[in-house]
Structure formats: C-alpha cells, structure tokens
Specification:
The structure is a homooctamer of 234-residue chains. Chain A is an alpha/beta fold and 234 residues long. The first copy, chain A, has helices at 20-24, 37-49, 61-70, 108-120, 136-141, 143-147, 162-167, 190-197, 212-227; strands spanning 2-3, 30-31, 54-57, 75-77, 82-85, 95-102, 123-129, 151-156, 174-178, 204-206.
Chain lengths: 234, 234, 234, 234, 234, 234, 234, 234
C-alpha cells in the first residue's frame, strides 16, 4: 500500500511563522518549488484562513490553476512565476520608488518577480527594460528615470555588467540580481553572479541567481527606510 | 637595461575620477592590492594635492610605512588593512547607525574594514564581535543593540549562517559579508558566500568575500537614506 | 537483433551480500536508481526468497507499482521514494530515540527517507518539520523534543544552517543531511553541504546530498550504541 | 599613526561562551588560525583565569612558544598542531574506546588532531597507522583491534577509500576524516571528501577536510553514548 | 523554407578515416551521440559499402531501430548502448583475456560497453559484476578469476574505490572506468573519476566517465601486446 | 486572473538598438533563447517594419514555424538553429574568405551557426568538416584550402585540440569555437574551452561554448579588415 | 650523487622551431615560467646564435639579471615580465595601430605584456590606462583614440566588463584580456574570463587569464591583415 | 613541553608492505611529500635494513641532502624530484622499450619522474622532448622513434593535446601524463587533465596531474607484458 505526504495534516509538515510580522514587519512568503501541489495549496489555505496576504514564488502553471480555482482573486504572473492574493497595501498607497532595470528581454522573468515582490510589500516600482551595456546609449537615455529612485535593482544574465555600470552613475544602493540567462560559460547565472560580486564599482550588493523575490524584498526594506522620517535616536 | 613602470608619470597609468563626487556623492577609493608601492604612493599624493580625502584598502604594512612617513596624519589599521587620510566629516558629525556584527575573532579583519569605510563616508558604526551561531545565546544577548541600527553588516566565514539568523530577527536590511576564515571545504570563503546567497531568510544581500569596504560603502548608502528626510517627490 | 541485460539470470549481475548481516549486523539495502525495473525486481525477489527484509531507496513510482503488484505487503512512500517489505523488528519494539529535524516542507523527501531507514533498522524516530533558522523561535519551541533524542538528524537545503544552530544547543551527535532544495547558487545541495561541513559548531558529521538513507542508517547505529548497555571491556 | 587590534581589551573582540558547558556538556575550544598571536594568547589567558581547560587547534610553533612560556604545563603536539592545558579528566579515567585509523604516514597530522581532541574530552583512543587500501592485508591484520572500538575515525587523503572499506567490515559508526594529503587532482582533500561522501558503504558520516578536531569531538560524543548506561526514558 | 543538414551528401560532413587501420591497426568507430539519425545512418552505410565492420557507441533505441531495419545482422545492446555489425574476428578467435570488473549492478551499462568494444576488436573478455568494496569479501571470492587476466577494467561510480583496491592485489595494469552512477556529491561521475586518479595504489590509469568504449579499446591494445610474441628488437 | 508579458506592447520590453549600425557597422541580432515565442516574434516584426534584416540565433523549431508562417522568405537552418530574413548583401557580393573548420560531424551545429552569421554580415565562407586531430592526415589533406582564408574558425568539442594544431600551421588569426560535444569530463564544453584558452600555440582567441554566432561575427570583422584597403593614417 | 638537468646539452631538452617562421611568419617565443634559469638561458643563447630575435615572457628578475649580464642590449620590463633582444622591425617601421585599453592600474602588468608582444612583432601600439567601467566617462573621454585603432585589446580583472562595453561602441575586433586582478570571488581572473566569454556584445574573442602575450600576438595578426593590401584572390 | 612525532619509533607510524612484492611483483615506493624529514628518513632506513631497493618521489633537496649523507650511493634527480637507492635490475638488463614524450621543456620534471620510475622497475626508456603540437612537424620528425616503443607516455601541460595527436598515429597504448605547466585557465593542470580524458582519439588512459611516477609504473607493467612470452593459457 502506497502512502504519501498528502495524508498528513498541514500542521505536521508546515509551521506558519505567525510572529514573523512582529519580528520583521513583513508576513511570510511561500516558496513553491520543491513542494507538492497538495503541500503548497494546504499552506496557502491555512494562511488565508488566518487572514494573511499570500505571495507564492517559483509557482508553475499547474499550481496557478489549482489556486485560482479556489481563490478567484489570486493573480498569477506567468513570466514572474508569482501568485499573489492580497497585499500589504492597495496600489495607490505604495511608497517611495524602486527602479528595476533589466538588461534584456530574457531577463524579464526575474525582473518581474522583483517588481511583484516589492509591490506586494508596499513599494512603488518602475520597470525599465532592455538597456544592456552592449548598447550603452540605451541606458543613458533612461538615466534620469533611474536616478529618481531610492534604490535600484539591476537584473542581468550573461556577464552581468549592468550592475557595475549603473552603480558608477548613481548615488543610491544598487541591488544586483543575476539571472540564469545565457548558455555555455554563463553556467546558469554563475558568470553574472561572479561579475556582480567582483564589480569594481562600490554600492552594489547581490542576491542569488534568479532571486527576484529576494531583490524586491531587500529593495523594499531600503526604500521604506528612505521613505520614512529619520529615526529620532538610533 | 631594465626599466619599470615607476619611470612613468602618474597620469600615464592612473586617471583620478574627479567627477565621481558629482555623480555618486562620494570620492574614489584606492584599491592598493596589485599596485606597486610606487604606483599606490603616486596616486595618493596626487589625490592629496587635489585636496581629496584618501581611503586605501588592502594595504600592507610596507605601504603603510611609506605613506605614514610622508603623511604623518595617516591612520593605518593593521587588522583592517586600511589607510586613511582625512574623511568626509569629523567623527562627531557621523550620522545614523550601522551595526557591524562579526561571527568570530578571526572575522575581525573584514569587519573592521567595513567599520573604517562606513566611518570614512560619515556613518556612525557599532562593532559587535564574537556572536557566531554556534553559541546563539551570545547573539540574543546583543539583539537590542543590533536592532537599533538602520542597517546591519553580518561578517562571517565558514558556513556564514550568521546573516540568515539575524535577518530572521530584524526589520532592516542585512548586508552579508562573507570572510575567508576557515579551511578545507570553506574554500577561502566560498562556503560562506554560497550560504549567504542561498539563505532562506529574506532581507539579505551579499558582497564579495572579504570585501569589508564594499559592505561598509553599501551600508553607508542605506544608512544615509534612513537618516535623511524622505524625498519630496521621488 | 537487440538483446538486453534482462536476458541474464540475476546471479550474473547481482551478488546478494549474505554475510553482510554477520559483518555489520544489518542486511543489505537496494539502491534502485540506475537499475532497470527488471534488475531491481529480480534482486528484490531473490532477497525475499532468502527471507531477507527489503528496503529499496530512490525508487520511482513505476518500480513501486511493479513491486506492490507482486508483494502486496510492500509499503511505498512516494515522498521518501522508499519501498519496504518487512523490517528488522515490529514497530512496537523499536528502541531509543532519533529526532529528524527538517528545515522546511521542501526538505521532507530527504527527511522521510531518513525516518524510513532508521525505523526499518529498529530505531524509534520523531520527525519535526519546518523549523528553519529564518524563524528561529520555531526551533526553540521544539527544543525540548529535540533534546530528548540520542542523536539528531538535521535536514536542510539552501544554506544548511540548521545543523550548526542545533549542534550549538544540544549535547548529542548531529548528523547533517544536506538536501538539494533551492536554486541558483544552491547548486543542487552543494551550498548546504559546504555549510554543514564548515560549521563552526562541533558535534556535526555530514552525509551526501539527499542521502536520507545514509543519515538514517548512521543515526540508527549511534542510537543503538546509546540504547544498549555499555560494553564490559572495550 | 598605526594602531592594531592588540590595543583592544579582549572582551571587545572575544566572548567566552561560558554557558557552552551547560548546553553541550563540553567547554569551548580555541581555533587559532586567523587569529593574531595577541588575540589567541589573550583568549587563552582569559579561559585559564576562569579555570577552564584549554584546547587550541591549528596552532603554529610561534603560538606554541608564546603559550608554553607562560603556561609551562601546556602540551604542544607539532604534528597535530594542538596545544592543550588541562583536560576534562585525567588519562586514567578516560572511557570507552575510539579507534583512529590513518591510511598513511602523511595523514598522521589530521589523525593525531583527532586523537588529541577525543582524549581531551575524556575518551580512550587507539591510533592505528599506515593501513591504506593499496595494501589491504595491512588493514585486515589490524581488524580485530579496530572492531573493539565503539566508533571509528578513518583518516585518509587522496581517494579516501579507507572509510568505505572499513564501514563494510564493522558494525559501529565510522567518522570519515578526509585529509589534504595528495597533489594534482586530489585538490587539497576534495577528492577524499567526495569519495567519503559518496561511499557505497552505509554507516559513514564525514567532517571537513583536515578537521581532526571535529572528528575527535563527534567520535567522543558517540563513544560517551556507548559508554554510559542507556537512558531510562528517552 | 527550412533546410537541414540531411540535404547534404555524407562526404560533405563526414570523412571516413580509411587509413586509420594502417596507422593504428583498428578501424574507426562511430560516436553516435550528438549526431542526427540521418547523419549516423549515412556514415554507417558508407562504412558498410567499404566493407568495414561497424561499432557504434552511445546509440539510443531510435537509432537501433533504424539500423537493424536496414542491417538485420546488427546487434544492439540496450544496456551498453552499442550497435555492432561484424567485428575484427569471429568470437572463437578472440585472444588473451581481459577481466571487466563492475562494482554494482548500476555500473553494468559502462562495463558492458567495455566488453562489447574489447570483443569487437578481438579480445576475450570475462565480466565480473557486483563486487564493490562495501562488501569486500565478494571481491576476494573472485580474485583468482581476476588474476588470470592480462589487464583489468575496474568500473565503478560513487567513490570509485574498486580500482585502487584491485590494483593493490594484482600484478597487471588496471584501467579505471569511472561511471556516472550516484547522486548528490557524486557529481555525475566526478567523484569516482577523482578517486581513481588519486588512488594511492600504482598501476592504474583512467578513462573518461562512462567511457566504456575507451576502456575496452585501451585494454584490448594492452591485451594484444601480452598475447603476441615479444618484439624482436624494440 | 492570470496575466502574462504577452499583454505588453513590444516597446515595453524591447528596445531596438537602431543606432547600433552607426556605432558598429552592423545591425542587432535576436538571441531567441529565453524569450517567449510572443516576445521573439514581436521583436522580429518590429525590426522588419523598420526595414532591418533579421538574424535570429538559438531558435527552436516552434519559433521557426511561427516566423516562416508570417515571413515565407525566412530561412531556417535546423542544425544551426538560425533564422534569417534578408542579409547585409546578396551572396554574390560577399567578400574575402573565412574557413570554418569542424572537428567532427557532431560539431556541425555550432560550425554552421558560424557560417550563417558570417554570411549574413557579408563574408564569403568555406566549411571544412570532420578533420579532427585523432586522424591528423585528414587535416593536412585540407591544409591548402584552410590557408587561403583571411581568418579561420576552429570548432571542436571534447579536448578542443584542433584550434592549437591549426594555429601552429597558419599565419592568420584563429577563432576557437568550443562546442558542447562530448560527455563526462567534457563538462558540456568546458574541457574544449579550457584547452583552447591554454593552447601553447599563439594566434588563438576564443568565444563562448557553442557561440557559433560570436565566432562568425568576430571572423567577419577580421575578414573585412583584410578585404578592405589599409587605412590611410590610422 | 645528485645530478640535474643542467648537465644535459640544450638540444636534449629543447627543439628550436626554426621552420616556425616559414609556417606562421613569426619566430618562436620563450615561455620562461616553469623553466630553470639554466634551461631558459640555454635556449636564449641558442636562439641568438642562430640570429633570431628573442622575446621571453613570464620572466622574473633573476632571469633578467642573468640575461642582461650576457646580453647588455636586452630590455627587461619588470611590470610586463618580458625580456626582449631585438625585434622584427625597428620602432619607426611599426605598422597600423592597436589600442591596448586597461581598466585599472593593477591591470597594467598584463596590458604591458600585450604592448611588448605586439611591438616586438611589428605593430604600432597605443596604451590607454585606468578607464574602467565604474567611471565610464573616463572611457568616453578616450573613445576617439580607441576608435582609430584596427583592433583593440581590453585588459580587465574583477568583473571584466570593459570588453563588452567597448565592443558595443566600436566597429573593429576586440581581444579581451582577463587579468588576475581582484580577490575573493574574482577567483584569480576566472570572473573576468567568464564575463568576457559571455558578454552580450558581439565582436569579442578572449585569451587566457593574464595572457598579455597571446592578446598582443593575436592583435598583431589582425592589425597586419588590416595594414596590408587585400589579398588578390583569397 | 612540546613533543613531536619524531619521538615515535617508525613501526608506530609506518607499516612496510613487505608482501607487496609477492602480490604485485614490485616493491613499495616512498611518497615523500607530506612526510617530515624524520619520517621519510626512518622509512628509507628501515627498507634498506630489509634489503629493499628504494625509490622516493616528490623529494625536495633537504631530504636529498639528508639521504645522500647517509647513503652515498643514492641518486637524486632534482628535476624529477626522485631519490633512488638500487633498483630492480642493472641498467643493461632493462627490457622492452617505453617512449616518454614531453611537449615542452617545462614538462620535463614530470616526464623525468616517469623515466626514473620505469627504469627503476626494469624497463628501457627513451625520452623525447619539446615536440608539442604547436609545431607539429617536430613531432613527425621523431615519429619513427616513438613507434618503436611498446607503450608511450605523453607528458603535456596547458591544453594537453599531445596525447590525442600521438594516439591517432600509433598502434600501442598511450599513457597520458598531464602536467601543471601553465597559468590562468590551465588551473594547475586541470585543463590538460580534462583534455586528455576527453580526447577523441582512442587508446589513451590518464594518470593524475604531475604523476610521473604513476605513468612510469603503469607503462612498465604494460611494457613487461609486451616483453614477456604470451601466457600459455590465460
């Protein structure tokens, strides 16, 4: 007789981190890869029962169908592979400004995951696409837009040079988001990751390959610091 | 007849990036590794002639002796391997607060490079040492100090778990600084780097192994955003 | 004319290690990956003919169907990918206590393979799930349960920090089980593996990525040492 | 003016983990690599002031001279690179039995670090040397000695096959200790590490390359479990 | 309009190395991976037209069907993934003796590719399976058979220790054949490859991962040297 | 409700680099991998609307069908995975000569991508196939053809030795094109890449693994320099 | 009695490739690393006896002293680590133009090796230094100088982005020269190498890390093609 | 009080494998790297006391001085880093023929280690140097010499192409010996190793990087098979 984990009640495999909001100010997010459909759905249902907004990342279309069938208000972004139900604030109350800059069309998946995450947590975001360094005038054409932001996410695959070039042109933090775009010696994003880590321009810090969520989350934290009044006595 | 690059005038091998201040708000820094003593000294002299404050990183004791002989006001930190002449503001005018948290005594070199950089650019910094996750109560004992900061630098070698544990406990950005502390499968900091990049806690971005300067610079940018009044219209 | 290895009698490709029980105290286990269905089935039939209990690991659902058709008493665990027929002792006679601690829901596959193996060989096991270090209070909430065990298996992917944090909190051996959970710089479990190998907390030893069986086997050996009376004269 | 960390009082860079004994049953150990002579000495003095026994690992001869000058009772083992002052119990009270098996003469450094650590924490240890698998009869000649132990440490460089061969011959846990012995494709111990992790023999868990201390610590934990009476109610 | 290379006549993409026989004593072999079905078939037809025997390696079942439809005398070995038409001599004229020793059932694919290649070129071969080092008595039970050979191929995945153990027990060359059997830190055969390259036993040389053909070819060359009368004047 | 990037107008994700022609003399090329069918098609339509010739690389058959349905004049090369509409000049006006030399039949995909790219940009090309170094006389038989070229592309997988051997025999630049042909320690082209980078023969520079386009582009630049009259005053 | 290779006459270990000039148009160069002083000197003496000009690369100062003592006309460049005696043509007859562009002062060693090599073989060279992408206006300030060249060498360490940015701005081939400048994740030049190989800008080919000689040699070949009249009939 | 391993009697750390001769036909060899001078000397004295001939590998000059002081008949080869006392047979009785072919002067260290080992065990050896593939006519000039051998050792660093080119030209086994010659992407011999493992020419097997001893030992085994009369009935 075969048995599977779907026989288990959700509390036996997942512990909703309810105090996360108290500790960090933000609710938990569901990393959907590596979970069975049953596991992911059970966790989302549990979170909704507790009234928590839900952001699922690395969600495939099968999960999307399962969730949108149950929660018609869920929004699935096929390119970003995110699924969202609710959010921390309505769009019109989003604060500050984050610029998400993508080197090429192929980097849009990761870039849009960053957009979705930052917006979910309440930041205003502008997405600027296809301004890779191979045609650097395209970047200069958008420089004023980029400079208006409190923090910049630079998403690029292949050699990942975009982050360093931008960091040399602005006075705010750059979150570098390496993507798995490329082939051969791109090694699934490793080249971009290494290039971003070793950039000779200061003002860059880096997240995992294709971790648009992490970039958006970190940028949101920084953007909120910029948007709030300075601490009285740190 | 042997000739060397020391025959060349400095303008033939180094271009002081004078407009860097305009573009990014901060003066250039001298990365001393890989430069001959003559090259590094010539660049520093040129910067002083132009009235720029100087921060040299990855400076060894030979360079320290050369520079302090010429500029008695230079401060050399043997552990951080930094050399500083002047700074962006006097210590009493430093702003905000950055917490630099080091996992162990062996991580202090990288951590203090971060401290020196952030202070050079005008941030107030608190260094908290030897609170690695193997004895996690030591970290909890300092948690209130850590939580007062606008941004946190977590310096750790070996498995680099400190960054993720802290990020799960605070509501501000964590800059993860992997160090080359360790041996064998630590691979000169690679294990710490990978651990920090793949942490399951959000709110972390990572700089290069032993790049205390980069961590301090990035933290300073974020700290300044937190310390200034919010932008009127981003 | 095409011929395949299924033409061969089983004794021509597999040597049942019958004296293994004498040497090591435990029967052989069938590693099913990389074997054809015919090969795996033939080996299992041979073992049953000799009255040996069977534990198959890395078994897919096709093999499960083949084996449960022939041996209705076989138990297949789809998450653990194990198939078991019989065991060394009935559940009520299992000894001692092993705690299997999984960082997240996605780590359950490897964690349950460990559970199945340790139980097959006669250890009592408690599975504690979703207590990763990003929300460390979840771990503390279960610490008393964990501390009751003779030996602990810590299963985690991504940065694998769970093993080091636990080892700093207990006085028994921790077997670290890195999992392939994660993406990008997780490199299929390499980040977790390296993090566990280089942990600054002592009291950890590590098995291969996703090798739940190996963790369970090793923990069972240790648990049995703890559960038996001490050797008279070692 | 150059300043260094030796100006700092020890409490500013090192936090003695005094409650470690309560939590884990064993005092903290000093990892000397990456610390300056001043730092290491200050920590050791502080521990002695509190009456703690001291085990320093990865200690070079310069530190040895510094420490033995101050503490004449200190024992330095140049091959193991350990320095010890006191220990958890006198030699005649050491318990149980650990067999430390070294493949070749070149592996003795790591093997003896394991011996020193296990003895420091109170285990009886037997060291068996130069029984690598290239001349496997040498191993068989010592098999009875090996089988008397509660737990075995197998130290080997190059291909690291010793651990797997032993694990197939005994009924107790094997802690595999890869060493950096070898050249070329040995990659400083990586080949041995990988071979030990992927061994087809169960009953093996692995520590970091050259981590004799970690192997000795883990073996001591297991040996103590075997040497004590079984827990009443786990 | 789409066009493909199948429009090209075979002489435009493949140059049959007809003089190979003169230079090396053996005809060319067809490496089928990475070739389209059309390309592989065209080359085989061309070789048959010239009366050459054919050995195809890394051939999948689709190619097998294509070739056996045209050449009913073709022999396809699904496990070895070889396809053979003819051979250098009839089975009864094969010379000398090669022992192909496989660690486990999962290594049989590579091992049988070696068998097929060595037989194709005229060597007598004995295949000995499932004698991995985890149960070393199984190897000793077959040692006399192994020692009768002029040269030995040792096929193993995971830690690849089999080659070193055998080489310490015999007086003839061992060709080590690492296989991609295993998971996690086996890295698709890299662990076995490294283990074999760094074995402390002399008398081993190594071929590429899963390169059964290369092992069989090299063993055949050595076996022929042993089987022929010694050169008059080298 | 699920939405995808296909809702976006093309100008929101792709910036046609119109001034690229002015800057570099050559129009932009469409890298199709990692783009959705909708994205790739929208970009190609936009380029055609502006009268630009189109070269798409890494295009699969699904995209080929989509594009040839709309643009019947499009040419798809299934082996090269290129799609071309128009070109910089008609075939009869192509200039100079590039020799593309492929080691084996399996390298033809990359080699033909190079041919397609160089011809698209206006170079005359000769493709010479199956002349790998294992049968070096085949290479010598074509040496005169190879020597007539202004620049040579050497495409090879596995050990990639072809580039070095050719460079030792000619007086013009060799562009080395490593391919992903091979298995095991070929590591998807890494062995060939490293071999080409470290060749002891000078006169070689290397492009990414399987980057036939890059090799063809670079060879075209060099061929044009050779075919034009020398600059009056550089 | 100890004997060494210096007992051997030079013809027993080195074969001067005299026909190299006929085949490739250029004399052989002496790679000095890994040769004993005696070996390197013997080879250079032999070449001078035959009237060949000498270029030695990777030469340290000990060799420099040995050679300049015997050949006072030898020129040693300590930064480039080259030693030259004679050359293919006097400086005033050098042809065409190569631009060698170095990202930073630390890259000057590799860059000057390229300069020395290209000049040795008869090309005119301009060296442009310290124009890395972190301050991209410095690059634009020199763009006209760069654009006058027939071929460009871009030398950069760390992330190596300089090559891609330049290639997007010019219409001639770029030879990318990765340097070992950097630390941590720069991995001794690997990051720069990967970044250059995967650049999204076409028109780049890459040489080995720190292979200034190879870059200069390849650039010289291309420059000569540009400087000569086009071939009558290719 | 500091104690070291030199206090131990040799039988406590080294087990002379006396029966090795019976099992494999050849005495044990002393791998000197990683042993202290005292350890290595003690082992050599012990072997001489038992009348065994001694071959020490990876021996530095300090050990050479120690040993030649005690055994004036010892022969030290500084390039090969071998030390030999006696041998299996006098030079005039050496049998068969092995050709050791070195690509360049820098490869002579590894190549001569192979020569020394093969001669020690009783094979006749011819060393052919500086015939790398960059000037392939040098190889052809020596081809007749090479073809007279029973087995060939091909020593090369950098891309290691020599082995594959030779294997395509001869009808006997080639033992490929990768060397650590080179820099940058040569990765200390890894490029050569990978190139040799993946060579498209069959008839090659590979030993560890710089393992001249292993190549010489294996070639000697093969040469002896060729030189003896064929086995009556294998």
């Amino acid at each position: 007789m075969a048995n599977t984990d779907s026989d288990l009640p959700v509390q036996d495999f997942a512990v909703i981190d309810q105090r996360r909001g108290e500790r960090t100010g933000y609710p938990e997010v569901v990393y959907c890869a590596g979970k069975t459909l049953d596991q992911a759905e059970a966790i989302i249902i549990r979170m909704r029962e507790r009234g928590l907004p839900v952001l699922g990342t690395k969600a495939d279309s099968a999960l999307s169908e399962r969730i949108t069938a149950r929660f018609p208000e869920a929004e699935y972004d096929a390119l970003a592979r995110t699924i969202a139900i609710g959010g921390l604030c309505p769009p019109e109350e989003r604060q500050g400004l984050i610029a998400v800059v993508a080197a090429g069309t192929s980097d849009l998946g990761a870039a849009r995951e960053a957009v979705r995450a930052a917006e979910f947590f309440g930041s205003k975001v502008e997405l600027i696409s296809d301004v890779g360094v191979a045609g650097i005038h395209r970047l200069f054409a958008r420089l004023e837009d980029i400079r208006r932001a409190n923090v910049i996410i630079a998403a690029a695959g292949m050699e990942g040079a975009l982050a360093g070039v931008i960091a040399g042109l602005v006075s705010v933090p750059v979150i570098a988001l390496p993507t798995s775009v490329g082939y051969g010696a791109a090694f699934g994003g490793v080249s971009a990751l290494l290039g971003m880590l070793t950039s000779c321009a200061p003002g860059i810090s880096v997240v995992n390959i294709d971790n648009g969520f992490g970039a958006g989350y970190q940028a949101n934290l920084i953007n909120k610091l910029a948007a709030r009044p300075p601490k009285e006595k740190p």
